[in-house]
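Example 3.2
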Amino acid sequence: MTTRSFYAIVLLLLAAAGCGQDRTPAPTATAPTGPPTSEAYNADQLTQALLTDIPGYERSGVPQSGQYGALTAVRNSLQMQQAAKFDKPECASSTRAVSSNKAVWSAPSAFIAFAKGRDQTASETLMAVGPDVAAQQVGLRVPASCKSFRTKVGDRWLTGSVVEARGTRIGEGSRSVGVATTAGTTMVKTWSVVLRSRGYLAALTLYGPGATQDEAERLAQQAYQQAERILP
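Structure, written as tokens:
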């Protein structure tokens, strides 16, 4: 396995970890509003509402759209996750909370990715879920036992630590999660921001050695503003 493919798998694992853990959600400050089902927007509308550009980044391919579980990015992520072995198996299942939620798995969705140089990426996913599902996803919390872990990919081990930051509130509710991962002498970081508003859920994930909470939240704010402008 090459170093490049190894870190590609690490990226997908951390993106999944950033999506949240399958535990009881904490109360949210604002009662859910908007349409009661996941049919508020279709995949075409969500595609139009994605970020179109990020200064300093280049778009990676074309946007993907359709049911969340059928997106190429999601399917590839799940396949690569199967190549990894967690030292805490219970944490492996909890990091896939978004994927295992039927309401999210079948939701109309759109995805786009950007790259800055060879080392940093940013991706955005929009999902048309009802307000209850969106509030649940934003309220998910990382179990204390999963805030540190080790993962084996091929014959190599990486160690990780998870931080749940207080963060800036975006939309009707949001959460920010950071993961720092070390493989040998190399450390990479992932920051994910999940937010909800008016019948949709948005996830912005920033990955790379220079990834920061401030930049992830700034991009998430831009994603939110774009979606609010476009979606009726």
